[in-house]
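Supplementary notes (optional reading)

For those who missed the lab, this is the record we used. Protein: Putative metal-binding integral membrane protein. Length: 270 residues.
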Amino acid sequence: MTRQALGRGIPSVRAWTRVELLLAALLLALAATAWVLTSVLAMPDMRLGILSGSSPMEPGMASMSVGLGLFVLTWVVMMAAMMLPAVTPFTVGIRRLVSAGSRTRVMVAGLTVGYLVVWSAAGVVAYAVVRGFDAVVQAGSTTSVRAGAVVLLAAGCYQFTPLKRWCLVRCRSPLALVMRHGPQAARGPGGALAVGARHGGYCVGCCWGLMAVLLAAGVMSLVWMAVIAAVITIEKVLPRPDLTSHLVGAGLLGAGVALFVAPGLVAAPM
C-alpha cells in the first residue's frame, strides 16, 4: 500500500465501483431497517427528555423502568440507524485503500461490528445518564429544563475545543487510520474488529456532546434522532468542518442560555 494510494482518501461517489455502490446500499438498507426497529422498540418513557418541559406526572415522563440490557440493545439499534449513513463513505474508502483480496467482506463486517461495539459500551454510560435525568424530572419541569440547558451549554462549548477538532478530523477521513492500522484490518476478523473499534472511539469523541443533547431531548424520539443524525452527517461530509462545528456550537450555546434564563419557554405550568 503506497502513500500515493493513501492520498486518494475517500473516493468521490461518482468514482465508486458497482461493488462499492452495493456495499453502500447494503449499509444504508441496514440503517433504514434500524430506523424501523427503533420506532418499534422505543418505549413511551424514552421519547421525552428533560428538555421537553413535561411534568413528572405526565405518562411520557414516568420513571424509566426498562432494564440495562434492553436499553443497550435499543441503543445499538438506534446507533446503527443514526451512524451507518455517516460511516458509509469511510467504509467504502477503507475498502479501497486496503488490499484485502477475498477477505474484503470479512473486513467490512469486522469494521462495522467493531464500530458498534464501542457505541454499545457508550450505551452503558448513556443508561446511567438517562437514569440521572429521570431523577431530575421529579424535581419539577423548571428544574429539569434548566438541567437540560446545562447539557446544551456543555455540548456547545465542546464544539469549540481542540479535542472535538482532533476527533472530527479523524472521523471524517480513513487516511490516518489506514496508514497506521490498515494492514491490521486486512489480516483477519480480529484486526478489522480492532480498527473498527478505534474508528468508533474517534466517533464517540467527536459526537458525545450531541448524543448528550439527544438524551436530554428524548433518547428514542425519532424526530430528535433525525436532527442529531443530520448534524453528525453534515459535520462528517460537508467541507469546512470547523465552520460547521462552530455554527452548531453557537446554536447550542444560544439555546442553552435562552432555556436557562427562561425555562418557561418549554416548561409546563405548575
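If you only remember one thing from this example: Residues 173 and 217 are 29 Å apart (CA to CA).
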